[in-house]
Each structure stands twice: as C-alpha cells, then as structure tokens.
Amino acid sequence: MDWHSVPTESVLDELDTDATGLTSEAVDDRVAEYGPNELRRGEGVSPLALFVSQFQDALVYLLFLAAALSLAVGFLPGEEPAYVDAALILTILLANGVFGFAQDYRAERSIEALRSLSTPTATVRRDGRTVEIPATELVPGDVVLLEAGDAVPADARLLEVATLETDESALTGESASAVKEATVLDEATPLAERRNLVFMNTTVVRGRGRAVVVETGMDTEVGAIATQLETAEDRETPFQREVDRLGRRLGAGVVALIVLIAVTQLLITQTSPTLVLLVAITLAVAAVPEGLPAVVTLTLALGSQKMLERNALVRNLPVVESLGSVDAIVTDKTGTLTENRMTVTRVLAGGTVHEFATEDSPVDDSETTPEEGERLATDGDGGPDRSALEALLTCGVFCNNAELDPAAATPPDPATDGERGSAADDGGDDFRGDPTEVALLRAARRADVEPAGERLAEFPFDSERKRMTVVVADGEGDGREPTAYTKGAPRVVLDRCDRLLHDGEVVPLTDERREEVLAATDEFAGDALRVLGFARRTGIDADADADDVEREMVFLGLQGMIDPPRPEVEAAIADCRGAGIGVVMATGDNVETAKAVGRQLGFDATTAATGADVEAATPEELADILESVEIFARVDPSHKVDILRALQESGRTVAMTGDGVNDAPALRNADVGIAMGIRGTQVAQQASDMVLRDDNFATIRDAIAEGRGIFDNIRKFVNFLLSANAGEVLVVFAGVLLGALFFPEAFGGNEEALVLTPAMILWMNLVTDGPPALALGVDPKTDDVMSRPPRGSDASVIDVRMAGSVLSTGVLLTVVGLWLFFTSIQETGELVVAQTVLFTFLVVAELVRAYLIRRHYGLPVRSNPWLLAAVATSLGLQLAVLYTPLATVFRVVPLSATGWETVALAVGVFTLVSLTLSVVVERVAPRVTQTAEP
C-alpha cells in the first residue's frame, strides 16, 4: 500500500488500530501473522562447501586423474605404484586448495550488518499506556513515540509532529535533514520527499512525533535493500571466467592427446601398457600449469597490499584484476563526491555578497561585492563588512540547537590517517544536531565569531511558521538586554522586518532593497544553495509572545549552504576520463543540487535525468539515456541497480561507489563495489569489494592504475607459464613417438623410457617456474598505464597474439630440446643423461623466457630485483637437484662441463631465434597497446 498517499483515517482503518495504540491481544495475533520486526538472516557460507569448491575445476580434475594413474601403475604385473609422483601431485593440489580457501573464505555479512543497525528498543502505546519494548516486538498498527536522538524502529506514518526532522542520508542520499509533516502526499512522491513517513534505521535529529507503524522487518525500505542484497548473485571477474575456460579446454585437449598417443604407442610402436600409463601421467602433469592458481592469488594479494598503501582496502581479491578493466564509474554524490556535511559557502551581509571557503580558512580571498567591489575585512578591524558579517553569523549561532560533541572532537591520530588525510583534517564532525544548524556553527567558527549569551525563550520552527526565534540576553555583565534572533525562509523573515543592516548602518527596508534581497535569494537558490534569512530585534520584553517579538526586526542577511564537493575530486574525475573511464553521478538529491555540484566537478550539467525517468524507461531506452546524460537525481536503490545493469548489458565494466545503506544493492551488483571507509555505513562496506580508507575519489584513480598494472603482470606470467607448459607437452608428445620410432634400442623395451618424468615436470612447473612467475606478478607499472583506454569487458588475457606466442615458444622449445635430447642419446647411449640435459635446458630456457616477455614492455632488466632474485633462486634449486641426493629422487645425473656447454649453446639458439621472431612480429604487426605480447 502507498502509505504516504492516503488520509490518516484510511491508514488507521487499514491497520485496524487507532491513535491510542494496540491491545496486547491484538499484538499477539499480529506477531503470529507478521513475525518479528527484524531483517532475515542471509544463508551463511559453509566452510566445508567452500573448501570442497577449491577442487571443483577442470585443471584439478586432470591432476587427480594423473595421481590416480600414478597409483594405477602398481596394478600392472611386476610394477609398483609411483608413490612419489602421486604424493607430489596430491601435495600440490592440497596446498593450492588450502591457500585458495584461506583467501576466499569470508562470511557474507551484508545482511548481518543491516541487522546490527536495528534499534534495540522502541517507545510505544500499548493497552492505553506508554511502554518501552524491544524493537523486534513491534507490529504493524503499533503507535510509536519519537524524540530527538531516537533511531526510528520501523517504517511508520506520522500522526502528529512538533518540529520533527530526521537524518535519512544513509537511506536516501539527501545530505540535509528531512523536515517531517503529518500530511497527505501525492502517490507519485519519490522516497526522498515522503515527509509524512519515517523509515527504519534513520535517526531523529530534532523535535518529536507520534507515528503508526505500517511496515516491519523485511517489508520496510531497509528490508527491501536487504532483499536485493540477499538475492544478488556473485559476479565472476573476466579473468576467473577465462581461467575456467582454459581449464576445460586444456582438460579436453590433454585427454584427446593421451588417447591419440596411447593408440599410436599400442598399435604402431607396440609400446607396453606400463609406458602408456606413464606417458599419460606425464602429459597430464605437463599440460596443467599447477602454479598458476597460487601465482594468481599471490599476485592479487600483493597487489591488494599495494592498494592498501594507497588507502584502498580490497575485500575481494579477484576485483584487483577487475579494476584494470573498469570503463564506467557510477558514483553517489553525498559523501563520495562531496563532504557529506552542509557547509555555508556564500553569505549576504551588509549588502555585500561574500564567498566562504570550504576549508579551515575563515573566508575566501576572492569574495565579491557586486555594488562597490569592497573586500571583506577579515582582520577584525571593526570595518563595516566585518561588523555586518559578525552580526549575521552571531544570529546563526544563537538561533541554533546544535551543540558541540566532545566525543567526536578528538584530535586526529596521524598514525591512522591516510596519505591524503581524513575527515578529521578539517576539524572533524565535532558538532551534533541538525546538519543545517551545524553548518551555521561551523561558519561562525571559521570567521572567529563566538558570541556569548543566555537563552531566555524559544519559538521553535515548524512547517507553518517556517522560522525559528530565540530570545537571548547577549553580551556580558548585568546590563545585558534581551535580543531576539530569527532565522527561516528568506521571504518569511523579510515579512517580519522593517529595516535592514546595510554598509554598517541600519536603514529602512524599502521595496527596492527588499527586491535586491529577494534577487540575491533567487541567485543563491539558482546555484542549488539552501538559503536562510536572518534578523534581530533588540530591547524586547523577554516574556512577550512570538507575534510581539517577531515584528519590526532588522534584516541581517542571508546564508547559503550546500554539501560542497571534495576539493580533489574534480581532478580525479578528469584523470579517469583521460583514461577512457566514464563517470556518472547518481544521487537522491534534487535535480538542481545535483546539477550545481556536477558543474563544479566538470560534469555535463546541461541535462539531468531523474529516478522517475529511469523507472519509466525500458532497458534499451535507459542505455540510450546513459549515452548522453551524466547526472541522475532523485534516484532510489532500485534505480541505481537499473543504471548499473543498463551499463553492464552494454558491455561496460562498472564500478559503483557509495557510502549509505541505499547504495548497498548497487555495490553488491557492481563489477567493482567501492564503499567509503570513514563515512560509509557498515552495510555499504560489507556489500562492497573495496573500501576507501580516506573516502577520497582520487584513491579510485590510483586503484585503477594499480589494477591495470596488475593485469599487465598477469598477462606476463600467464604467457610465461603457458609457454613453459606448451613446450613440455610438445616435448613429451613428440619425444615419445620419435623415440619409439627412431631410437627403439633406447625406447622400445624400456618401461621407463620417458623424455621427461612427471617428477621433473612438476619440479619445473612449481619450483623453477614458480618464483619467476610470482616475481613477474610484482613488476612495476609502465609509465603509460593511465594514458591508454581500458580493455574491453570481453578482452581476453589470452588473446590471439599471446596464443601465437605461447604456441611458437612451445614449438621452439620442442625443436631445440629434442635436438639436444636425441643428440645426447646418440653420443652417450644413456637415456638418463639425455633426460638430465633436456631437463636442465628447459629450466634455463624458461628462465630466459621471463626476460624476453618483459622486453616487449620496455622494462629495464634491473627494474625488478625480485625477478633477478627469483631467477638466481631457481638456478640454485636446479643445481641442488643435479648435485645433491635429490638427484636420486628425480632420477637425474650430475652434468659435466661438456653437458653445460651443450645446454648453453641450446639456450643461446633458443634466445636468438626468439628475439628474431619478436622483431619480425613487431615490424609486421606493430604493437597496438602495451599489453601485447612478443
């Protein structure tokens, strides 16, 4: 039911209640019908299921098959199981599974965070009495009482109010407090303007009210957000999908290859079943890049540490890679692009307009004086500008119910602040109360205006009066006289005035001067400023009523305020656009405010769409709107999700930033959800993939740059690992066939006549290839990382050029390696010597391959000391295999000086041919982007 659009009597009738509340019997029935007033728990993550999922992959299945075949050899007559090979394979699988589980396991706490926001108690009318009950026991029809400081326990329709205002910024995105009225609204009124309703988990900032509960639990507005979070699907990154496809293709290809070789061996070369099984095991091990999952995870983890140093806390590792492909950012305005606090930015005092700075400096040096061009006196010299400004700001201080919050005024801790600082940098949120009144106090403090006085009376603001007046005995000593200070809607305040302060003097308020003030009011409002008028009257009777006090007043001026843009955001948005990333603002604020902030930040503010436009548009029409519109105002959570989906269906990779509860569904559905760390709600942070510790939009730019660099590095080590595996597969495939056909004396009757053993291949894939691959993962970014456009959402890590590079490298390794292998057999007649030479050649050639890949990126050899250390480590480990008792495990022999000379010659040939092919390819097909492979 549209509770905001029907008369109060109809609401009460629909809920079968009245203004005095429910009886205990009625409550019992409704508890049974509606259940507790709480948010439903999401399904938890089973640790066991998550651990098992680490092994549900085609590559893993293939390795399990290889381990099983290693043991199956023992069932053949006269054979023993290959326990060492099976143990190595299973150990690697377990290690990768445990590591992946440790990285992936985190409870889905979005719904739990929403639950934690629920208020513990509520004040209600039950059985004709006012009682306090647990908020979970509220039911539709309950009448709740609200006062300043209360958290609203459920969605409720207001029955009566007394200057009631609530803070709904976390739900609607509105930075200003919402003034509430007990009235009937149009059915089409958007959520942010439903001033006759209060919503669960918002806060009463002033006044009091009485309301009837209309929705509880999952039926509330917050519950609707919880439902969207609960039903949102986990999104795989493009790289995750690609690795999955790679596993399936490798698995199918290896099975086909095993069958082909098995048939060839059994029918053509008459190879024994034992050797057929050993070759199958070797091929399975050779084809699978065992180290790839661990290297990917470690690279992403190290990348996340780099981002943390830049104040970006990554909560979901695969998103590190996704950041590199982001080409659209949908950002909330409040708290993300802006300071998330109302700030006085312009005043009219003494007939002069002054621009206030938004930082700690009291007033900007560029203030304007349209009439005489005078400059604002800020040195306290008592000039007319200063006295008029002081009078205006003094009125704002006295006519104010906000107060200093000692708990929030703690000085910032330099040890925990980020590089760019935090909200504490500008004094922190050290006031509490209505955001508008807090802005007035801050404005006075920035101008060093701190008046003293004692409040004698107050005539509060309400929706009919549209003004607030206080009577103050200001000044010091016994001679203080009562002075009335009024603030409110400018036209209302002007109607109570007959004079105004101009050029330091009190002069009559003529029609001409009234029009000048109204023109300034319209100009302020045209720039989306919230405008208040201020007046005072001295020498009054402190016991007089409002009508007597609020007359014949002196108009002091105007204060215009807005939630101002964060100073660094404009440059950050420009940087993102320069990198080919579109930025869209989606806010709950009204259109004019959104456009005004957008203009200051460089958005195209000529047009803007609203939530109603989003709701009325088809997905195709919304996609068309997004081609030309950058600002969306008056949007609710479902509209933000619609915008995201329209962009995603257009092939865009979308990052969503936000801080409020209302942002959580979009954060959860985005390719990259980015929450604010300082001002962000726990709900938004738990729904996100990344949290900005400094709430700084510029940090997103830095994170994207890191993501692009990480994607480049992923391409490097994927190329490196697949090139090595391609060479190993082709060496085993061609070597066994050629050996059985042309070297029958060495291969024909030898049950262990393998070109490479499974243990050798596992050693290469994990020990000698692993450290260099990981070192490639921490390569420095190239200088042009943010000057190229983002890669497309369908861009593959393994593109045609990389596939060609991998295949050509595999063929080259095979040709050179088998030449080395068969030459060694001919010269020595020893299979084990030939295996050792080939084994060592492949290790050294693959290490050289790492530097050949980096060469194309223009990175100096010494730019990555980790790679130098990794290569040295891998060579050291290879020497340990050759010259220590490990040689027995791997069935190799120590290489002689002649053997090393042969290996060095073969590596030289491989390097020379690789460089020649790279130069030819670059000349025939020039490098288009820095991510192309040699």
From TrEMBL:
Which SMART domains would you find in this protein's record?
Cation_ATPase_N (SM00831)
Q: Which residues cross the membrane?
A: 58-76, 82-102, 250-268, 274-302, 717-743, 755-778, 798-820, 832-852, 864-883, 903-921
Q: Name one GO cellular component term.
A: plasma membrane
> InterPro entries of this UniProt entry?
ATPase_P-typ_cation-transptr_C, ATPase_P-typ_cation-transptr_N, ATPase_P-typ_cyto_dom_N, ATPase_P-typ_P_site, ATPase_P-typ_TM_dom_sf, ATPase_P-typ_transduc_dom_A_sf, ATPase_P-type_domA, HAD-like_sf
Subcellular localization, as worded in the UniProt entry:
Cell membrane
Mind listing the GO biological process terms from this record? inorganic cation transmembrane transport
Name the Gene Ontology molecular function terms of this record.
ATP binding; ATP hydrolysis activity; ATPase-coupled monoatomic cation transmembrane transporter activity; metal ion binding; metal ion transmembrane transporter activity; P-type ion transporter activity
Q: What Pfam families would the database entry show?
A: Cation_ATPase, Cation_ATPase_C, Cation_ATPase_N, E1-E2_ATPase
Q: Where is the composition biased (Acidic residues)?
A: 361-371
Residue intervals of the Cation-transporting P-type ATPase N-terminal domain: 2-75
Keywords of this entry: ATP-binding, Cell membrane, Membrane, Metal-binding, Nucleotide-binding, Translocase, Transmembrane, Transmembrane helix
Q: Which organism is it from?
A: Halogranum amylolyticum
Q: Where is the signal peptide?
A: none
Task: Provide ranges: composition bias, Basic and acidic residues.
Answer: 372-387, 417-433
Q: What is this protein called?
A: Ca2+-transporting ATPase
- Annotated region Disordered: the residues are 354-387, 406-433
Recorded topology in the membrane: Multi-pass membrane protein
